[in-house]
Write a structure and sequence with these properties.
Layout lengths: L2 H31 L11 H8 L3 H7 L5 H10 L7 H14 L6 H15 L8 H25 L4 H24 L14 H13 L3 H8 L5 H9 L8 H19 L4 H15 L2 H7 L1 H24 L1
Length: about 325
């Protein structure tokens, strides 16, 4: 496969995943803004949503205050934000067009029809129901694209590059959301466990579509150490860091098998996966959750660079 085609497939998947992640952040912020603890202790749920995308500095260049109108505009529609839902879907469709012959008909129709459907919504001044409908369509686009790839693509290098993009992006988002709330996930901090903390833990899980799954696994109330364990170390949770890296390693190994050689990206992925599998919950908090996640984000970004050097350049 030509490196430019591999690059388009990889980034197609990353931008589709990023659009879905951003939609989930907006949904979670909307829900949190309606709770009794909204704005408590100087916390701004809308600013948290922007911080979850890693673009808070860029946001504050153009906006003094993070509120519903400014954040929905910035995260959903702004052309000045390269990670807005609109920008992500524009880039995803452009990449899909450039590798049209590598996609199945189901995949192309999902991207193209979903892109056209969401282009008709432009205003940040949407009603709550209109915003909910828009975000639901974005999530549906991503889920349909992911499902059509899984069900209809040949298991070849095109599929492996697509899946690599999905899981690298997903791991980055999970780690960013956790890093944003590392302080409220420390079970040893003073006054842990009040209503404020409960809504914060719920916000984390809702942002990652993991609240129901958490209760299925633990059959218990929300607890900070269990939230951290679930989203970092539980392989059965598909958005956990260890689950993402099992898939990253699997797809990189599949590429090395098909191309007949391994490289730095395979070694780096196995190293990260091994560290995650060897981590225990007590060890996680002994290291410091914030420190652990900062290192993971660096490692994940470094792996993305190695993949680009090895395959996409």
């Amino acid at each position: 496969m030509l490196s430019r085609h591999a690059d388009s497939l990889y980034w197609l998947a990353r931008y589709v995943e990023r659009a879905e992640n951003t939609a989930r952040l907006i949904e979670a912020a909307t829900r949190l803004s309606a709770t009794p603890i909204a704005g408590e202790a100087g916390r701004n749920e809308w600013e948290m949503a922007v911080a979850g995308t890693g673009t808070l500095d860029l946001f504050h260049r153009d906006h003094e205050e993070a509120n519903r109108r400014t954040v929905v505009d910035y995260l959903a529609f702004s052309a000045g934000n390269p990670s807005s839902i609109r920008a992500c879907l524009d880039v995803a469709r452009a990449n899909a067009r450039s590798v049209r012959t590598a996609l199945t008909m189901d995949m192309w129709e999902t991207i193209n029809s979903g892109w056209m459907d969401t282009r008709g919504v432009n205003s940040p001044n949407l009603t709550r129901q209109e915003l909910s409908d828009f975000l639901s369509r974005v999530k549906e686009l991503s889920l349909r694209f992911d499902g059509s790839a899984y069900r209809t693509m040949l298991r070849n290098d095109a599929y492996y590059f697509l899946r690599l993009g999905t899981f690298i992006e997903r791991a980055d988002f999970t780690a960013r959301v956790l890093a944003l709330k590392a302080d409220v996930l420390d079970p040893n901090r003073p006054s842990a466990g009040g209503s404020f903390d409960y809504f914060q833990w719920s916000w984390i899980l809702r942002s990652l579509s993991a609240l129901t799954s958490y209760h299925w696994v633990y059959r218990d109330n929300l607890k900070p150490n269990l939230v951290a364990e679930f989203l970092i170390l539980k392989a059965e949770m598909p958005r956990s860091l260890v689950a993402c890296y099992e898939k990253v390693t699997l797809n990189l190994d599949s590429l090395s098998r098909d191309y007949g050689r391994q490289g730095a990206s395979q070694r780096k992925a196995r190293m990260i996966l091994g560290q995650l599998q060897d981590t225990t919950l007590p060890g996680l908090f002994a290291i410091g959750l914030a420190r652990f996640l900062e290192q993971f984000l660096r490692d994940n970004a470094n792996l993305g660079g190695l993949i680009a050097e090895q395959y996409l350049g």
